[in-house]
């Protein structure tokens, strides 16, 4: 069996007496879309925080691409190929789309990371990376627009682009379609699905149509634990999932 790109073993996270994650195991294969679903309070975002180093583990082990990153900081995990977006958009609002991507690209290089506000001319490889990202996220035609002038959907795609600037092996997306209109949702869906050609996507998403359409594997969480895991068709027909979370609302299929 192929070794997973990401393997989390017995992940535990406590906040005082509150047990947010109660021994979660997760195996994510390379160049797949692996979605994590469940109701509010199931522990999805806490799991993302733990996997990406935003919060320290209480217990457990995280292996990424052969590296034990269990106790590494978030920026150290970025350096081995892990990147993420957050539920709340985090951009430089008074800078252009291009400048947001330039800073994200520049910040991945240790020698330049502390000179983010300087007028360092991007190297040829960095410029190529920025241009490639602009095309991938569909924002090449608004490269000179300020990020705060973009639509909500465009801002979310730009945030994905900033995560891509680190050239990650895996990208963690936390509810990327939250608050979007139908057209923006379709654009984001196509973008996420295209990413699996080059890297691994770990996704939290409440839109079950998207989850069922684009996921290779789905992990369902309940009260800080994994309830069930499998391919979309198996999750769709699992009575535990249908009764506990989604009723008859699971629709969609690739």
- Order of strands in the sheet with most strands: 6-7-8-3-9-10
Large-scale geometry: globular
> Which radius of gyration do the C-alpha atoms yield?
18 Å
How many strands in all? 10
Q: End-to-end span in angstroms? A: 25 Å
Helix content: 25-40%
Low-confidence parts: 248-254
* Secondary-structure element order, N to C: EEEHEEHEHHHEHEHEEHH
What fraction strand? 15-25%
Structural class per helix/strand content? Answer: alpha/beta
Can you tell me the number of structural domains? Answer: 2
Please identify which CATH superfamily of the largest domain we are dealing with.
P-loop containing nucleotide triphosphate hydrolases
Largest sheet: 6 strands, mixed
CATH topology term of the largest domain: Rossmann fold
What does this structure look like?
This protein is an alpha/beta fold. The chain has 2 domains: 1-81 and 168-254, Rossmann fold (3-Layer(aba) Sandwich); 91-166, no CATH class. It has helices spanning 44-52, 74-79, 97-106, 124-136, 152-164, 182-195, 208-214, 232-237, 239-246, and strands spanning 6-15, 18-28, 33-37, 59-64, 67-68, 82-84, 170-174, 200-204, 217-222, 225-230. A 6-stranded mixed sheet has the order 6-7-8-3-9-10, with helices on both faces. The protein has a 4-stranded antiparallel sheet with strand order 2-1-4-5, covered by helices on one side. A hairpin with a 2-residue loop joins strand 9 and strand 10 (225-230). Helix 3 (97-106) packs across helix 4 (124-136), helix 3 runs parallel beside helix 5 (152-164) and helix 5 (152-164) runs parallel beside helix 6. The radius of gyration is 18 Å and the shape is globular. The two termini are 25 Å apart.
